[in-house]
Amino acid sequence: MHQPAVPHLAASDPEVAALVEGEARRQFDTVRLIASENYVSTAVLEATGTVLTNKYSEGYAGKRYYEGQQVVDQVETLAVERAKALFGVDHANVQPYSGSPANLAVYLALANPGDTVMGMALPAGGHLTHGWSVSATGKWFRSVQYGVRKDTGRVDLDEVRDLARAERPKLIFCGGTAIPRTIDFAGFAEIAREVDAVLVADIAHIAGLVAGGAHPSPVGHARIISTTTHKTLRGPRGAMLMSDAEFAKPLDKAVFPGLQGGPHNHTTAAIAVALGEAARPDFREYAANIVANAKALAAALSERGFDLVTGGTDNHLVLVDVTSKGVGGKPAAQALDRAGIEVNYNTVPFDPRKPFDPSGIRLGTGAITTRGLGVEQMPRIAQWIDRVVSAVDDEAEIEKVAAEVRELLAAYPMPGWA
C-alpha cells in the first residue's frame, strides 16, 4: 500500500485513492530509468501533504502581503539557508514552481525582449527554455544556439567561443536535458567573461550529483544557477535559483511579483527536507553510486551493440541511438514500458527523424540507485533492454521480461510503498 497511508482519501474519494495506489504499485514494479525522475523519501512525501498547503504567502520572509506568516517564514528561511549551505552560494530563491519558470525569471531579471541570448540547441541536448524556437524564450528573445560535434557528440568550446564572439549574447546558458558528459563550467565562464555575458548554469539534471560531489560545481563560474529540486536531488517537484549577491534582488523580483503569486509552502517544506537529506554523508555515497551505475549500464549496453551518444557517460544519464537495432526510439520506449522498464524516447544529435518519433532513448540511474540496485544488476538490465528492443512486437517475450523485472524488484524497498 501507499506509504504514508491515505485512509482519509480512501474514505472520501475511493476512485482517486485507487489511482494513487495503482501508481505506487506501478512505480514499485518498474525499473524506472527516466533520467528526470526519482523516488523521494517518505519524509519528503509527508512534508508535501501537510497543512502548509493551506497558507497563502505572497512575498518573501519578513516581507509578506498576508498576515499569519510566523511559521511559514521560518519554513522558507530554513529552505533558503540549507540551499545556500549545501551549494555554497550567496543567495537562493526556493519559490519557483518548476524549472521552466525559474529559467524564465532569469530572462525577466536580466534581459529585454529582443536581446541576444545563447544556449544549447534542443536537438543537441539543451532545454526548451534555453532559447529554442517553440519556447517563449525563443520567441521573445533573439536566440542563437550552439550544438555538439558530429564526430564526438560533445560540445566544442572553440565553436561556442566563436559563436559568442560573433553574436555577443547578454546571457549564455550551459547545461541541458540530455548531456551525458561533464559540463565544463570553467570553460563556459571564460567565454562569458570575454564577451561580457552572464553565464547561467542549468543544473536541473545534475544538482544531486553536484551536491554529492560526483560532478564539478558551477559555483564560482556561473553567476546564476538554476535547478529543479527533483531528479538527482531527490526532492519534490519544484525549483530554485541561486546566484551571486549582485543578482539577488533582480531575481527575487522576477520570481515574485514578476512571474508568480504565492509560493507553494508545502513544496517549500519538502525542499527543505530534501536539502537536509542531501547534506548528509550517505547522500555523497548515493551520488557516487548513481554515476557508477550509469557507467556500468552504459558499458553493458555498448557490449550488446547499442550506439551510445558520446560513447558513454560521466553522470547519471545515458543517451542511446537505437537505429542500429532496426527500430525507432518511440516504439522501443513503448515496448520497454510494457516490459516494466520505464525510459523516454529522445532525439539524438543530428537526428534524421522527427522529435515525436526520434532515433534515441534516454536513460538515467537516479531512481534505481535510490531503490538500492548496484553495478552488479546493470548487465541484467542491459540484457532486458536488448531483448525488448530486439522484439518490440513480441508480446510474449515482453511479458516474460516484465515478470523477471517484477521478481527482481520485489527484493528492493521503495519509499512510498509498503
Automatic annotation (TrEMBL):
Protein's pathway: Amino-acid biosynthesis; glycine biosynthesis; glycine from L-serine: step 1/1; One-carbon metabolism; tetrahydrofolate interconversion
Class of the enzyme per the UniProt entry, highest EC level: transferase
Native species: Actinokineospora iranica
Localization in the cell: Cytoplasm
Alphabetic keyword roster: Amino-acid biosynthesis, Cytoplasm, Methyltransferase, One-carbon metabolism, Pyridoxal phosphate, Transferase
Name of the protein this chain belongs to: Serine hydroxymethyltransferase
Modification type N6-(pyridoxal phosphate)lysine: residues: 231
Catalytic activity, reaction form: (6R)-5,10-methylene-5,6,7,8-tetrahydrofolate + glycine + H2O = (6S)-5,6,7,8-tetrahydrofolate + L-serine
Site features described as Plays an important role in substrate specificity, chain residue numbers: 230
Lineage: superkingdom: Bacteria
The gene coding this protein: glyA
A cellular-component GO term for this protein: cytosol
Subunit-structure text: Homodimer.
UniProt-recorded Gene Ontology molecular function terms: glycine hydroxymethyltransferase activity; methyltransferase activity; protein homodimerization activity; pyridoxal phosphate binding
